[in-house]
Amino acid sequence: MKIAVTGGTGFVGRALTKEFIQNGHEVFILSRNIDGKENKKSITYVQWLNEGDRPWENLENVDVFINLAGESINSGRWSEKRKKSILESRISATNEVEKILSRLKKKPEVLIQASAIGYYGISDSENFTEESNLAGDDFLARTVQQWEATAWKVEDLGIRTVYCRFGIILDDIDGALPRITLPYKAFAGGTVGSGHQWVSWIHLKDVVGGILFVIANQHVKGPVNFTAPTPVKMKEFGQTLGKVLHRPHWVPAPRFALKIALGEMSILVLEGQKVLPQKLLTHGYSFLYKDLKNALEDIY
Fold first, then answer.
1. Which residues contact 36 (CB under 8 A, 6 or more apart)?
2. How buried is residue 224: exposed, middle or buried, by Cβ count under 10 Å (0-12/13-18/19+)?
């Protein structure tokens, strides 16, 4: 297959690209700056998001389009300027994807659109599945809702569209886990906030496996929760991480201190939601890692 990926040099994009190449596929990575990036046998770099770029000219006959583009939400405090940048980076990239797809004579079979479980908002008691109608109203929820709404235009082109609502993706190099792990490595790990907030996690290998699964299964479309079927409370997450790392779980990180340190961004660790991957399970995806301890042991 020929597969186009925006955000192909990012966290999930790198893992996907590696898997695609190992399986003999041809990958087109869309990048704002391709200077110094050398095309290889299985990878072609395509410039986009600059005035005058015409990426569609290099993407005819692409079978799958994957849109992972968007500024990271966890690399700095959420000033009003930064929040605007987080939202606009997602909206502008998705609008450009729709523009590219509309210009292709032969449309790809599927668009895999990045999204997030932040769509559902915050709750300690609700169980959220893809059928849940209860959407959140905080910054993250509104951002994700607008992000998905922008991608709806692609469905009008007759392209099967999958919205991957990612949970907390576990990996030792990137994402949230290295930051969570840091105090444990310094023998200072402990419960974050109340400890009662839900952590809906997923191993990076299941992110890759799940995306391959929905590409291959034409009946899967719309929102798909990318979370393991066994979310845990934050206290259990920390205790399990401590056991896997052979480090104590004893120094609490109080809510007020994290709010002072992180500002509005503290919602990423102080709040959560219990999200279940109903659609993946219903269609027969078999998770590699259902158990948090096994997932963390594979990583560490």
1. none
2. buried
> Strands 198-199 and 274-275: what pairing?
unpaired
pLDDT (tens digit per residue) in 58-113: 999 999 999 999 998 887 789 999 999 999 999 999 999 999 999 999 999 999 99
Buried b (16+ CB within 10 A) or exposed e, 96-125: bbbebbeebeebbebbbbbbbbbbbbbbee
Q: Could you give the CA distance from residue 117 to residue 130 in angstroms, rounded to a whole number? A: 10
Q: How many CB atoms lie within 10 A of CB 51?
A: 4
pTM of the model: 0.95
At a CB cut-off of 8 Å and minimum separation 6, what does 22 contact? none
Decide which of 208 and 258 is more confident: 208
Amino acid 120 reads Y
**C-alpha span between 270 and 277 (Å, rounded):** 22
CB atoms within 10 A of CB 223: 19
Strands 274-275 vs 222-226: parallel, antiparallel or unpaired: unpaired
Tell me the three state secondary structure of residue 30. strand
> How would you list the strands of the sheet with 43-47, edge to edge?
43-47, 26-31, 2-6, 64-67, 110-116, 160-166, 222-226
Distance in angstroms (rounded) separating the CA atoms of residues 237 and 255: 17
Q: Which residues pair with 119 in a beta bridge?
A: none
